[in-house]
Structures are given as C-alpha cells and as structure tokens.
Amino acid sequence: MDILLILGQGLRGSMVQVWNLALIVVPLMVGMQILDDLKVLEKIAGQLGRVVRYLGISGQGAFPLVIGLTFGLAYGAGMIIHYARQGDMSRRELVLIITFLCVNHSVFEDTLLFVAIGADGVLILLVRFAAAILITFLLNKLLPRDGSTLTANKQRQA
C-alpha cells in the first residue's frame, strides 16, 4: 500500500513540475517567435556584430549566434549550418560560434528553468556569459588564421 502512495505522490509532484515548466517555456517560445517574425532578432544581431568582432566572429556570424543564444543548440545548429552553406563563413569562425554556444546557449529558457527551481538567475547569466566570452576569446587567439572560407574550400575540392 505504501508503494502506491509513494508512486501517486511522485506522479503528482512530477505533473506539477511539468506544468510549471510549461508555464515558462510555452510563453517564452511564443514570444521568441514573435520577436523573430518582427525581425527584432536580426536587429539585435546587427548590433551584436560590432561586439563579437573581438571574439573573431563576423557580423554575418552574429545572427546564428543570437539564434543559438535565444532558441538553443538545436535550432542554433540548424541556422549555423544554413548560414555556413550559403555564405562565406570560415571554418575558424564556425568553431568560434559553436564554442561560444556550447558554453552559453538557450539563455532565456535555461535561466528561467533554473530560477524556477530556486537558482540565482543573474549569477547564472553572468557566469555563463563570462565563461563563453573568455573561452571564445582565448580560442580566437590560439586558432590559426588561414583566411579560407567554406565556399572557397568547396570550389577547390570540385
């Protein structure tokens, strides 16, 4: 009999947590889609392009970076692949963007989820951004600058 009580309480507690997460994630995703439709993310990427230059990322690479920061790794990776195929982004720049996003992705969703369970959201944001900036900056200094782009590499291979 105790096992049924424990299972019932566990199921009830799990459902409450799923509901709490849905209350955060669903409005956030709707809001992000609205921002995307209104081209707000493109404007942010344009402004961010000036800043990420110090990390070795071009203005063209700023948009996939913003998408990865806001929507997370899965959607960000799709945008990175799309921009890499259509543009002249170097392998080096792709590595820098991916490095930054590996350390710091899905900023809003992840932070709100951790806040929902009692974490300090400001501290999480600061530590994640600082770590991503530091690691990407150091990698930018360490990676060789060969100047080749993915488009140029494809043309050489053909």
Describe the structure.
By secondary structure, this protein is mostly helical. It has one domain. The chain contains eight helices and no strands. Helix 3 runs parallel beside helix 5. The termini are far apart. The relative contact order is 0.11.
Q: What descriptors fit this protein?
A:
single chain; 158 residues; mainly alpha; 8 helices
Question: Helices and strands in order, then pairings?
Answer:
Blueprint: H1 2-37, H2 40-52, H3 59-71, H4 73-86, H5 91-103, H6 107-116, H7 121-142, H8 150-157
Helix pairs in contact: 1-6, 2-3, 3-4, 3-5, 4-5, 5-7, 6-7
Question: Nearest-angstrom radius of gyration?
Answer: 20 Å
Low-pLDDT segments: none
Tally of individual domains: 1
Q: What does the largest sheet look like?
A: none
What is the H/E order? HHHHHHHH
Class derived from helix and strand content: mainly alpha
Tell me how many strands there are.
Answer: 0
- What is the approximate shape? elongated
Fraction in beta strands: under 5%
Average per-residue pLDDT, rounded, comes to 82
Number of helical segments with 4 or more residues: 8
Provide the helix percentage: over 70%
- End-to-end separation: 70 Å
Summarize the structure.
By secondary structure, the protein is mainly alpha-helical. It has helices spanning 2-37, 40-52, 59-71, 73-86, 91-103, 107-116, 121-142, 150-157.
